[in-house]
TrEMBL record, chains A, B:
Keyword flag Transport: no
Protein's UniProt name: TetR/AcrR family transcriptional regulator
DNA-binding region: 33-52
Pfam family, any one: TetR_C_33
Positions of the HTH tetR-type domain: 10-70
Gene3D superfamilies the UniProt entry points to: Tetracycline Repressor, domain 2
Keywords on record: DNA-binding, Transcription, Transcription regulation
Length: 187, 187
DNA sequence: ACCTGAACACCGTTCAAGT
DNA sequence: ACCTGAACACCGTTCAAGT
């Protein structure tokens, strides 16, 4: 009875992640339990612990994998405003593809920073291109990131009407332009 | 033994809310359990259900009570930019006083809209004063609200450096000014 | 009216035992 | 090496019984 209901087929990490994914996309992070996950795989709950440290490690790993799908667009020579909008859209599309997991990431910043490494470089590049002075580059980048990720979570939870993302981005770009102009005249 | 460990003193809703509050402020929403709450009140867990429908109703009510503490500043005749900043600060201070509960609210928009009724009127008033055309008043208000509440949650979870709130607000104000200017010239 | 204990259907996780 | 069952310490909630 050792092979049990799974007839000797060895359980793999990939299978586990895929099943966890399914559960989360269907019912949110709160629908994921180790026991349901095991049932989904027709396996004893305890077998999971041979492939995964624990539930939070599993969630963490899942978030990292989503993050890896993020491909920030390269510099195509277009104006910074367009590139910023394009970057925002990449971010947003991935979030909308996995809203439940994204909400989890937003509420667990230690995961967020590990997950979204690639975005920061792209954001910095675009802000420098826009003429943001280096001394507030980091602050501006953090502010924009907080605004945009907060907006996207709001979209996912229904706190904001659909199809307002471009307008929201336009507002930020307008603010950035004013900020840069002000920095230039005072220098 | 009916009076049990609480010696006949009748349990009140107020006591329950206060204790729940304490647990949440100490350890986050995830630290609140009906059983720990009962222990805190030296009462049988089941006694709580005589005063509260269930756990989510309790949380909901708690959120509404925090929201009621929000007093949007009245129109003092100062420029809209200052009034918008003042409004943001009121919102932010309350959120920082109860960060755990706020995170919960942000992730449960049905609670959010019930809780933050007073803010919307103030926001609408300020945006009209600023000259935002009525046809995008609602959209702009939603966008600003999503940005600001997202930023505040980011502050609470450590995703953004402290003392950047005024800078963040300035960015939004700059964007709004540009938006209004654009609307005026196109009209 | 208010409180209680026992019970049910869940959790995550540990540990000793099985193949 | 991989899997398992029994067990522990938790959850929220229902329900019949107590005062």
């Amino acid at each position: 009875m050792a092979a049990g209901p799974r007839r000797g087929v060895p359980l793999t990490r990939e299978e586990i992640y895929a099943a966890a994914w399914r559960l989360i996309d269907a019912g949110g992070v709160e629908a994921l339990s180790m026991r349901k996950l095991a049932a989904e795989l027709t396996v004893n709950p305890m077998s999971l612990y041979h492939h995964v440290e624990n539930k939070t490690a599993l969630l963490h790993e899942l978030c990292l994998r989503v993050g890896e799908q993020m491909a920030p667009p390269p510099d195509d020579g277009s104006p910074w405003q367009e590139q910023l909008l394009a970057l925002g859209r990449v971010y947003r599309e991935l979030a909308h593809a996995h809203p439940a997991l994204w909400r989890y990431v937003f509420n667990h910043p230690e995961v967020m920073s590990a997950q979204q490494g690639g975005l920061w470089e792209a954001l910095d590049r675009i802000l420098l291109l826009a003429g943001v002075p280096e001394h507030d580059l980091r602050t501006i980048a953090e502010i924009l990131s907080a605004f945009v990720s907060g907006f996207i979570v709001s979209e996912a939870t229904g706190g904001v009407r659909p199809d307002t993302f471009d307008q929201a981005t336009a507002l930020l770009i307008g603010g950035l332009e004013a900020h840069i102009r002000a920095g230039r005249t005072s220098a």
